[in-house]
Structures are given as structure tokens and as C-alpha cells.
Write a structure and sequence with these properties.
The complex is a heterotrimer of chains A (about 130), B (about 550) and C (about 120).
Chain A: H1 2-11, H2 30-70, H3 74-98, H4 102-126
Helix pairs in contact in A: 1-4, 2-3, 2-4, 3-4
Chain B: H1 2-34, H2 37-43, H3 58-72, E1 78-82, E2 91-96, E3 113-118, H4 135-144, H5 150-174, H6 191-203, H7 206-219, H8 221-224, H9 227-232, H10 238-246, H11 268-277, E4 283-289, E5 297-302, E6 314-318, E7 324-328, H12 334-347, H13 353-384, H14 386-390, H15 397-426, H16 434-455, H17 459-474, H18 476-483, H19 488-494, H20 497-533
Antiparallel strand pairs in B: 1-2, 1-4, 2-3, 4-5, 5-6, 6-7
Helix pairs in contact in B: 1-4, 1-5, 1-13, 1-15, 2-4, 2-20, 3-11, 5-7, 6-13, 7-12, 13-15, 15-16, 15-17, 15-18, 17-20, 19-20
Chain C: H1 2-22, H2 25-32, H3 41-64, H4 68-90, H5 92-118
Helix pairs in contact in C: 1-3, 1-4, 1-5, 3-4
The chains are: A mainly alpha (about 130), B alpha+beta (about 550), C mainly alpha (about 120).
Chain lengths: ~130, ~550, ~120
């Protein structure tokens, strides 16, 4: 899943960089308005799909890492990871819309996805099962 | 940079709130009503108002319930017995009907079981009340919606809840003067007042709003986020193993019928044993798996009013010998307990009447928060068209759509809820599938309100729907007096308290709606006099004066 | 004792929020007229208000236990804050009296609870 996110992150420069000042969107130039809408759509996709992806990665990573690192019971780690994931999701969405450009929004998500993604890959592989 | 952050959070707050606001208003309204779903169901069964079930100790109530079940469905795969509580003084039994033979048509989910309310002392079924879903309708509506598969509804509501959570976080960040403006409410100042109302209803109940939204997601969290159980239990038995480990004693898949008959051991002693194990705490629910079978198992759970957590300890007994098989949940693990508390906070079953009333108040604040937010957006957007309107132009399609949706969602919903209660008393008793018929009236009236609102989103329409809603609510106690044995004059003096409470609350809600209708009237008069004063050409009344 | 504690929870939270609101210029003006400020009383009102809210919390924990007590307190705070806003908006002239009455009730209630607790009821 982290691989998918990284790929999407690299493709996103297709959606133009976009200034963060939503209060003064240019209305007089048609192409600028189209770029604005494209930017919003890009961010919406990042927020909803990318945010969910990052949250899911965090949940899974916590569930797998906490028992390995702290000896927490597996069911406990699952609970903790899942409970935390909704907060992670909300924070990811806020990041996407606070980032100065849409490109930064996507790459920020990709960066956030790498640590849990790597941990998951490492721990599930070493645990005897394929990723 | 900081200026940009607040601004972007303001944008996020606006859109995450607006796009799902209409669904959220209904979710908040139905959820708030659900705090009193037992009382609502009781009001909707006037046959029960004059009958007061005889109180009995838990052992006796268990015996009579089991006797009833043995008589009516000895071959059911499962019995559920809910012992009487203060809010529900009858014993409630539910039994699954045996599955149809292979090859026969599958039975619809709701028809696979039967319910009955029993007098705890005698075990007699309480006079068959009219068929109605009662308060359960509002409870189910706020997460299962209606007229669609439950899974779709839960995803939709979960999506909206996630948007709401983002709206709460971004709203907090964006509200610069959250402490300075804590008590600020300036009425009669147009857009200022809408903003103040939105801020006050949001901030003053902020702990509640944040809690209810997050815990709402928690109640279905394994559906929304199944990745943690999947990842952690991939080579350890899969998600089923996770549920067995996290919720021991709850599994029903582990029980299998043997096919050989065996007499069921008396359950009352098991209830007594469980209660004493929990230091005298009352028993809540008894589940009998495969009664009268050699593999019968009796599962007993503690009553849910002692603590915040929704998870209650349970005990299992062998159904034939009466021997104790196991105790579960006595010492819950930390994360599981956290989840149980969060779940319990949302359901609110631990709340006594006072606390329940406070939850209700906060829920109403939530409804007002969503409504004022939606209306605030329309008011702000309308200002962008001020110049166009003055020149005789019209507002844009987006604003007109929002005006219409606002009207239908906010003014239409109270009318629909009242219509549901009116249908409960006015529909004939022998209508087929009466419960669904009552619900249909809810949606018919709401649909009519929505269509009319979209066609003519004017102040007059707001006034009409609010006033009608107010009238329907305020007259409910009168309807009760004519169609039930416990009018307000009787119920205030000698109970049932649930009926008196319902009658009083609907009067209060009706008065609130009437107040809102009056505010709209005042605004209408001001708008008319302002128009008369300005020198606009006659006949060019701006269409879509929604708010 | 239980009912007394609950009454204390509400009286103390209402009085506390009334005091905190009066400590602000804006609401001091609402109640006492334009140009009025809390002046020297500001710190005392803020301190008193906070103390009253803490009293409310204590009473709530005592009445409903260490877990449910927090929930009850937050609910009471919401009700009290909404009541304060209502009073400021629609009864500013009577605000002073109502707030003082609530404070007096809270202090008397606190005294009564302490005495009852001390005498071992």
C-alpha cells in the first residue's frame, strides 16, 4: 500500500502547484479557475484516499510494532492502532489543506506513509509471512 | 505562514461542514432522540400505559421468562432474555425461529425472530401492544439510515462522521478568539448573530461534540479500519482469532448444536451465582444457546448501568448440568477497556435520567450547531450576490440549491418526526407491517417538505414548515389524551413517568419551533419594509430569499 | 446528600461561569452599562470563577464517582455556560442578582456538604 502511495505522490506534479491563499481565488481568468478546481480536486483526493491510506498504515504498523517493541498483547496493540487511526486520518486531512502547494500535500502524505510502511514490510517479512 | 494556516483551516472547516451538513443534521437529531428511545417506544404503545408490570426479583423474572420460552419456542436455536430495569420494567424476550428447511425461500432478516414483553412476576405476555418500531426507528436511522442496505448506510454515516471530526478540529484551529468570544451572543445583528449562534452552540458543548463524533467512529471502527486486525493476525488465525481474543465469551460461532435433546438446567441459580460473583451487581442479559439440546450453553452478562464501559463481564454455564464454564471480562485489558469506555460514552447507557437529560441538551446544541452552520454559509454567500440582487438579478444555482436543501433538511425534519408520532396514534391497528407504515409517513412528510423547500426556498416556506412542525409537536399531548389511557393530567400525577416526560418535552420542542417561526416572521417583516424603503422597481422581488 | 451535591454541581458551575463572564469587559458592559469594566475586580472574578468551577467538579466526582463524575461535570458545564449566555443576552439587568444568588447557593451548599461529611452522614 505504501508503494501505491509513493507512486501516486510522484505522479501528482501533473496537478499544478497551487498557492494556498484560498480567500482570493482569481475569478477573471478561466484557466486559472480550472487550475483552482483541479487543485482542490487533487487535494480532496489526497485527503480522502491518501489520508485513509496513511491512517490504515499507522493502524496496521502500530498493531504489528507494539507487540514486537513493547511486548504488548496482540489484541491490545490492534485496539490501540485502530483507535489512533481516526485521529491520524483527521490530522492528515488538515495537513493536506494546510500545505502550501498540492505537490507538498501529496509528498507530505508519502513521507508520512514511509515509516509505517517500512516497519510493516520489515516486521511481516521477518515474521515468516510474505508482505 | 500562520495567517495562511488559519485561513486554509477556515476553508476546510466550511467545506467539510457544508458538504455533509444535511446528513449530519439528521444524524444528530435522530441520535439525540435515541437517548430516550425506550421512553419514546413506550409512549408509542399506549396499550401499555395503564398496565404496570409487577416488580419481581431477578430469579423470579428469569423463571417466568424461561417458562414462557419453553412453552412458545422450545426448539429455537437461541433465546435472549433481558431482565427488567428501571427504564423498561417488563422482561423482554427475543427468540430466533428455527431456520427454514433447506430449499425453502430464505426468510427476511426482521422476520427471523419474535419478541415479547412479559410481566416479570407471572410470565404472561403483556397485552399485545400495537406493532411499532418506536424509538428504535430513530436509533437505527442515525447509523443504518433507511431504505438501503445497512452496510452502505454505515459507510455513508462514517464518511460524514469523519468529515465532522475534521470540521471540529479545523473549527477549533480557526476560531481565533475562542476564549474571548466564549459567552458572546449578539442577537438581531444579521450575519454576526448567526456566527455567534454557531460559535456558542459549538464551543459550549465542545467536549460533547468531539466525544460523540470520535466515539461514533469507534463504535464501527473495525468495519472502517480492519487493517490492524488483518495485519497483526495474518499468520495467527486471522481477524476471527482477533475477535475471539479481544472479546472472549462473546462468540456464538463456537457453539454448535449436538442434535440430542436434554432438559435445560434451571437458570435462576445461574443468575444468582453470576450476581454474587459480581458483588451483588444485577444481571442484564441472559443468552441461551441451543436450549433443550445436549450442548446448551447459558451466557449471562452483567447489567450495563454501573460503569462507563460498554463491555460488561459475562459468565458461561453448561446448559444441562448448570456447571460454570468460565468467567470473562472481570479484569479488562487497558486498550480494550479504553475502547469499551469510548463505546459506552457514545451509547450512554450508564447515564441516569439527569445525565441523560444533559446529553440530550448537548445533542440539541449539536443540532443547532449544524443548522446554524449551514444557514451561516447561505447568509455569507448571499452577500456576494448583494449587488446583483439590487440590480434585479438572481442568485446563483449553488446558493439556491443550498437554500432549498437547508429548508428541507432543517425545517422538514421536525415535521417528519412529529408526523411519525401522529401516524403511530392514527393508523389503524391492523395495517399490514404497521411499523414500516409509520416510518413511511416520516419519509412522506419529510420528502414533501424537501420538495417544497427546493421549489420555493423563501422565508414564507421556512415559516410555514416551522409553524406546522411546532403545531404538530405541541398538539401531541392532546393526541395522546384522545388516543391513550394516560393523558398529561393523569401521567403527571401518577405516572407513567415516561409518558409525562415525553408529553412535556414535545411541548417544549414545539414552543422552540414556534419561536423559530416567529423569528422568521420578524425577519420577513424587516425585509419587506427594507424593500419598500429602497427604490427598487416593483415586481422584482428577489427570488430565493431563503434566509 | 446526593441531591444536595447535585444542586451544588449546578449552582457552582453557573456561578463560576457568571463570574468568569463578568471578568470580561464586553460582558461587564452588557450587565452594568457601556464603558463599565471589572477594574480591580477582574482577577478576583477570574479566581473566584475558577474556584467555583473546581468546587463543581469536586461535587460531581463525589456524587457520581471518579469516572461518571467527569462526564456529569462536563454536561453541567455545558448547561451552565448556555444559561450564562442566555442570561447575558436576554436578562442583563437581572444577571447581577441571579449570579449572586447562585454564588451564595453554591457557598452555602458547599458548607452544608462539608458539615454533613464531617458529621459522618
Amino acid at each position: 500500500m505504501s508503494m501505491i502511495l509513493i507512486w501516486i505522490g510522484f505522479f501528482s506534479p501533473f496537478f499544478h502547484e497551487f498557492p494556498n491563499d484560498f480567500a482570493r481565488r482569481p475569478a477573471h481568468v478561466v484557466s486559472a479557475s480550472f487550475r483552482y478546481r483541479l487543485g482542490v480536486a487533487s487535494r480532496a483526493a489526497a485527503a480522502i484516499a491518501g489520508g485513509y491510506g496513511v491512517a490504515a498504515l499507522f493502524a496496521a504498523a502500530l498493531a504489528v510494532c507494539l507487540p514486537a517493541a513493547f511486548g504488548m498483547a496482540r489484541s491490545e496493540a490492534v485496539m490501540t492502532g485502530t483507535l489512533a487511526s481516526f485521529i491520524v486520518f483527521a490530522l492528515a486531512v488538515m495537513w493536506v489543506f494546510a500545505a502550501r502547494t498540492a505537490w507538498r500535500a501529496w509528498s507530505g502524505l508519502a513521507v508520512a506513509a514511509v515509516p509505517p510502511g517500512l516497519l510493516l514490510l520489515l516486521l511481516t517479512r521477518s515474521g515468516g509471512g510474505g508482505a | 505562514m500562520k495567517e495562511g494556516f488559519r485561513q486554509s483551516m477556515a476553508w476546510l472547516h466550511t467545506w467539510s461542514g457544508l458538504l455533509v451538513g444535511w446528513v449530519l443534521f439528521m444524524v444528530f437529531a435522530a441520535g439525540t432522540a435515541s437517548y430516550f428511545k425506550d421512553e419514546i417506544t413506550f409512549w408509542m404503545k399506549p396499550e401499555l400505559h395503564a398496565v404496570s408490570p409487577t416488580a419481581a426479583p431477578q430469579a423470579k423474572a428469569t423463571e417466568t421468562a424461561v417458562a414462557f420460552l419453553q412453552q412458545h419456542s422450545p426448539d429455537a436455536p437461541r433465546w435472549f432474555i433481558t431482565l427488567p430495569t428501571e427504564r423498561e420494567p417488563s422482561t423482554s424476550v427475543l427468540y430466533l425461529k428455527p431456520p427454514p428447511p433447506a430449499g425453502a425461500a430464505p426468510v427476511e432478516r426482521r422476520r427471523r425472530f419474535d419478541v415479547a414483553l412479559l410481566d416479570p412476576a407471572t410470565g404472561q405476555a403483556v397485552t399485545a401492544p400495537r406493532e411499532t418500531r418506536g424509538g428504535e426507528f430513530f436509533y437505527r436511522l442515525h447509523f443504518d439510515l433507511h431504505y438501503m442496505p445497512a452496510i452502505w448506510a454505515r459507510w455513508i454515516v462514517g464518511f460524514c462522521a469523519m468529515f465532522m471530526l475534521v470540521a471540529i478540529f479545523s473549527g477549533i484551529v480557526t476560531h481565533r478568539r475562542i476564549f474571548k468570544d466564549f459567552f458572546t451572543f449578539r442577537p438581531k445583528k444579521g450575519q454576526r448573530s448567526w456566527l455567534d449562534a454557531h460559535n456558542v452552540t459549538a464551543v459550549l458543548a465542545l467536549p460533547y461534540h468531539a466525544m460523540i463524533t470520535y466515539t461514533g467512529l469507534v463504535t464501527l471502527m473495525f468495519m472502517y479500519m480492519p487493517w490492524a486486525p488483518q495485519a497483526a493476525y495474518k499468520d495467527h488465525g486471522g481477524t476471527e482469532a482477533f475477535f475471539a481474543e479481544a472479546f472472549p465469551g462473546g462468540g456464538r460461532t463456537q457453539f454448535k448444536a449436538s442434535g440430542t435433546r436434554a432438559p435445560l438446567a434451571p437458570i435462576a441459580p445461574m443468575v444468582a451465582a453470576a450476581s454474587s460473583h459480581w458483588n451483588g451487581a444485577p444481571v442484564g442479559r441472559i443468552t441461551v444457546h441451543f436450549p433443550n439440546d445436549a450442548n446448551a450453553v447459558v451466557s449471562i452478562a452483567r447489567a450495563g448501568t454501573q460503569r462507563l464501559s460498554y463491555d460488561q463481564p459475562s459468565m458461561q454455564f453448561n446448559g444441562v448440568t448448570g456447571a460454570q464454564i468460565g468467567t470473562f471480562g472481570d479484569v479488562p485489558k487497558a486498550a480494550a477497556e479504553t475502547r469499551g469506555v469510548l463505546y459506552g460514552l457514545h451509547i450512554g447507557r450508564f447515564a441516569d435520567p439527569l445525565l441523560r437529560g444533559l446529553f440530550f441538551l448537548s445533542g440539541l446544541a449539536g443540532c443547532l450547531m449544524v443548522a446554524t452552520g449551514l444557514l451561516l454559509w447561505a447568509v455569507k454567500e448571499r452577500q456576494k450576490f448583494a449587488k446583483t440582487l439590487k440590480q434585479g438579478g438572481r442568485i446563483g444555482f449553488g446558493l439556491r440549491l443550498v437554500d432549498g436543501l437547508n429548508l428541507g433538511a432543517i425545517a422538514g425534519l421536525p415535521m417528519a418526526m412529529a408526523a411519525f408520532f401522529w401516524a403511530n396514534r392514527l393508523l389503524p391497528l391492523d395495517v399490514a407491517d404497521r411499523g414500516e407504515a409509520e416510518i413511511r409517513w416520516f419519509f412522506i412528510v419529510w420528502g414533501a417538505g424537501a420538495v417544497l423547500g427546493l421549489l420555493r426556498p423563501t422565508l414564507r416556506m421556512w415559516q410555514a414548515q416551522l409553524a406546522l412542525g411546532a403545531l404538530l409537536f405541541v398538539l401531541l399531548p392532546v393526541l395522546n389524551a384522545f388516543t391513550g389511557p394516560a393523558p398529561l393530567t393523569v401521567s403527571l400525577r401518577s405516572g407513567p413517568n415516561a409518558v409525562a416526560g415525553f408529553d412535556l418535552v414535545v411541548i417544549a420542542l414545539g414552543l422552540g419551533l414556534a419561536g423559530a417561526a416567529w423569528l422568521v416572521e420578524r425577519k420577513r417583516r424587516k425585509a419587506i419594509s427594507k424593500q419598500a424603503a429602497a427604490t427598487t422597481p416593483p415586481g422584482l422581488a428577489a427570488s430565493g430569499q431563503g434566509s | 446528600m446526593g441531591a444536595l451535591l447535585l444542586a451544588l454541581v449546578f449552582a457552582a458551575s453557573l456561578a463560576g461561569f457568571c463570574a468568569l463572564s463578568l471578568a470580561m469587559d464586553r460582558h461587564s458592559e452588557d450587565v452594568f452599562g457601556r464603558g463599565s469594566t471589572p477594574g480591580a475586580w477582574r482577577r478576583w472574578l477570574q479566581l473566584g470563577g475558577t474556584v467555583l468551577l473546581c468546587v463543581s467538579l469536586g461535587a460531581s466526582l463525589q456524587a457520581a464517582g471518579s469516572a461518571i463524575g467527569w462526564v456529569l461535570w462536563l454536561g453541567a458545564l455545558t448547561a451552565a455556560a448556555l444559561a450564562t449566555v442566555g442570561l447575558l443576552g436576554y436578562a442583563p439587568r437581572r444577571f447581577h442578582w441571579i449570579a449572586s444568588a447562585a454564588a451564595a447557593a453554591a457557598l452555602l451548599g458547599l458548607l452544608a456538604c462539608l458539615l454533613l461529611a464531617a458529621s459522618g452522614t
